[in-house]
């Protein structure tokens, strides 16, 4: 693996990059927005504050371990392999946490961490210039201690990257329920702590020469007094972010995920990301390239049959069942994640915003679901290689063995070439696929066709972010 070298970044020229990562455990987005939280709101006003959905239970239970691991590694649980709070079987060697990376790539940076939940210290904060661990037992006192120590560090010391963990919102939810007044009061107390930290940042004598990235996030929501499973209150986490390079308009136009935290911090310190690291996220505010995002769902509708310019559909699905799911449709990923009780739809975590779905189970009509989605024609040199990449999320229950999902290349000479096939009833969740083929000698254009055939109407296939790349001969 090559070691990337820091590069100059014009947006932070002349000012020293500094970053603050604050994680408020177990905080529901609906309770956050209902509470009085001027500090977190101020981050959102300068940048973005928005819901940020975690996986559903097809990938992992919504407990704390996976959420914190995703926030610290920049990859989803099927890579870091933290599925519960004991971190058993984790792969943090292959996907090291942020503080480990920073320690290796930028040992010159002065870092601070305070967290009273032992697994964070045991597994995610390998080293920090200052690492505090208040003794577990009194989260309200510990949150105050974390604030006091971080404010002190900001006042008196050189500091580049600080991590602060707040525990009392989650603890209050578990004690008296996340619908309680006490839970809202805990959110407001923590927001007061965050206000004190932000004031300490602004009061630094060197503040004018510093460029601060501020990130505030949670690991999961809650449902009642428990973590729940696929409920919206559990799955709706949130992220607030601001920095000189985060354009609020661009940031508010897309959705952001826990895995975007690490790429944002690396970008802020001008540490180039090596593709070999396998990070799943992007810096917050990165513009999208997905053609599906050019389509909007009309007001009052859940999904739309409209397709991006140049795309087409071959529909053989009968006009029975739910018309909102007849054949390939475009839908916002988070709206689709709620359909039919979720059933793994929410685990398409590598997709964002608009996705294309062929949901035979949700359609539920009589006859065979048979729908083909086609990309625009793309010119290709005869004989040349082409590549199609996309994110795929596939589940089929009780499938009839000879039917399922296929990807074909169709050429303008009338020939076709099968690139991919999935017939067996197996899950393949949130998987990036890259398929390659060659253009026949007699052809000059290619288009890609995604076809789902399901006579049992017992599954779904969703894709996102399709890209077709053509090599010159
Ligand atoms: Zn938690």
Bound molecules: zinc ion
Residues in helices, as a percent range: 25-40%
Oligomerization: single chain
Number of domains: 2
Structural class: alpha+beta
The fraction of residues in strands falls at 25-35%
What's the mean pLDDT score?
A: 94
Shape: globular
Counting DSSP E segments of at least 2 residues, the number of strands comes to: 19
CATH domain class name of the largest domain: Alpha Beta
Terminus-to-terminus distance = 30 Å
Lateral strand order in the biggest sheet: 2-7-6-1-5-3-4
What is the second-level CATH architecture of the largest domain?
3-Layer(aba) Sandwich
**For the report, how would you describe the main beta sheet?**
7 strands, mixed
Structure annotation, total helices: 14
Verbal overview:
This protein is α+β, with helices and mostly antiparallel strands. It folds into two domains: 268 residues, Alkaline Phosphatase, subunit A (3-Layer(aba) Sandwich); 180 residues, Sandwich (Jelly Rolls). The protein contains 14 helices and 19 strands. Helix 6 links the parallel strand 3 and strand 4. The chain binds zinc ion (ZN).
